[in-house]
């Protein structure tokens, strides 16, 4: 059944995040031949609309207001509800990002709709739309079949491939005026922690350290390997709790969920709460002194050894390529 599906473009530091293109890829499947309309919310964001079209959106609707410079659930939901009232979509697909996780349930409750959260794939099967999502911290997957009503889902970043960029594509990028009422929350200032290198949640390569790195300095070889591979550094909660690194690097059930092409776990035992955040990575390499470590059960390649010997060797070899 062809349907109109809305996606939400996410903007960070003046550029679209990859997940914006992945939601279009998912929406194309969910639309089953219908129209995909991307929504851009912010202030001075209209120029980004063309890129969403190049990644497959049929149309872009832009809501701009100076009250929307920063994300607030209040402001964004007012803007989005204005678009939804006008467009009357049969589907909505957001990224399962910090923003999507916050906004989607709010919109779902306003629309009195169900919500499939954290989907890792969507397909058409037997005349129905089927979303797959991890359960029990990624130990199993369940399939959700949409039989009727609004198709509303958030998709996990780095799982559903975006369409190839087609620079010859063009389409309508229109502005919509929304009456954004006074916001209950106003963001006065955003103080960013200085972060080096690649964004962990979007990195294609993640080098993660656990308690086995033993100190803050123990992360240095991992940072070097990450820089040679163009990747980001992550950590287990064990390493964060031990104050070897900042909690913003934590991967797992109570940290970030990452699905890079390559995940190298260094000195991480592989507790279930850690696996919940990385077991969907495409290729997992584990380096651990203990051959019985649980991490080897999910690893594609295991290296039993001291990370302080193995990691510099890998860095040297990759440098030669
Ligand atoms: P450890 O379990 O201590 O493992 C260290 C590993 O390093 C060992 O396997 C050891 O053999 C190896 N090692 C030591 N020295 C070396 C060396 N020189 N070379 C190679 N290997 C070496 N954890 C998370 O990671 N993320 C979460 O989001 C998370 N959420 C949680 C939520 C809840 C409610 C709870 C209860 C726990 C959570 N945890 C989480 C904690 C989790 O249970 C583990 O305690 C934690 O993941 C362990 O971290 P670790 O593997 O770094 O440390």
UniProtKB/TrEMBL annotation:
Name used for this protein in its record: Electron transfer flavoprotein subunit alpha/FixB family protein
> What family is reported?
Belongs to the ETF alpha-subunit/FixB family.
GO BP annotations of the record are:
fatty acid beta-oxidation using acyl-CoA dehydrogenase
Cofactor binding note: Binds 1 FAD per dimer.
Identify the residues that the record assigns to the Electron transfer flavoprotein alpha/beta-subunit N-terminal domain, covering every copy.
5-191
User: Which residues are listed for FAD binding in this entry?
Assistant: 211, 236-237, 250-254, 267-274, 288
List, alphabetically, the PROSITE patterns matched.
Answer: ETF_ALPHA (PS00696)
Q: Name one GO molecular function term.
A: electron transfer activity
Q: What Pfam families does the record tag this protein with? A: ETF, ETF_alpha
Q: Which residues belong to the signal peptide in this entry?
A: none
**Alphabetically ordered keywords of this record:** Electron transport, FAD, Flavoprotein, Transport
InterPro entries assigned to the protein according to its UniProt record, in alphabetical order: DHS-like_NAD/FAD-binding_dom (IPR029035), ETF_a/b_N (IPR014730), ETF_a/FixB (IPR001308), ETF_alpha_N (IPR033947), ETF_asu_C (IPR014731), ETF_asu_C_CS (IPR018206), Rossmann-like_a/b/a_fold (IPR014729)
Cofactor(s) listed:
FAD
Report the domain of life of the source organism: Bacteria
SUPFAM superfamilies noted in UniProt = Adenine nucleotide alpha hydrolases-like, DHS-like NAD/FAD-binding domain
